[in-house]
Design goal:
The chain is α+β, with helices and mostly antiparallel strands and 130 residues long. It has a single domain, classed as Surface presentation of antigens (SPOA) (Roll). It is built from 4 helices and 4 strands; from the N terminus they run ααβαβββα. The protein has helices at residues 4-18, 21-34, 69-73, 122-129; strands at residues 58-61, 91-95, 98-108, 111-119. β3 (98-108) and β4 form a beta hairpin. The radius of gyration is 19 Å and the shape is extended. The N and C termini lie far apart (51 Å).
């Protein structure tokens, strides 16, 4: 039996995702197909079922900076570290350390989430590896 709070939260997330609409998903699928990704027609390509349950690490990066060890050791509670990103810029979405998308933070039922705003094309990912 499921918890009513969990059901309500699941409904809230589903509603937030539905705001994007089917047209966004169709456009992303079309762009993925045009970029040399998987075929848009189900069953027309390789069987991916063998890899679908492999866990990957998804992380969001707000920004970064380089700091000397001397300055690192001087940090304490309340210290502010300047990052190389401006306020309002999209976050980087990384899978196993590889940039795959950009997004923005959203809040649904007091929990953080991420709305993807841009998917990095497979060809762009290959360029970044070099």
């Amino acid at each position: 039996m499921s918890d009513p709070d969990q059901d309500a939260m699941a409904d809230a997330w589903a509603a937030a995702l539905d705001e994007q609409g089917a047209t966004t998903q169709a456009a992303e699928l079309e762009n993925f197909d045009q970029a040399g990704g998987a075929p848009a027609v189900p069953g027309a390509g390789p069987n991916l079922d063998v890899i679908l349950d492999i866990p990957v690490t998804l992380s969001m990066e707000v920004g970064g900076t380089e700091i000397t060890i001397r300055n690192l050791l001087q940090l304490n509670q309340g210290s502010v570290v300047e990052l190389d990103r401006l306020a309002g810029e999209p976050l980087d979405v990384l899978v196993n350390g590889t940039l795959i998308a950009h997004g923005e933070v959203v809040v649904v039922n007091e929990k953080f989430g991420l709305r993807l705003t841009d998917i990095v094309s497979p060809s762009e990912r290959i360029k970044r590896l070099r």
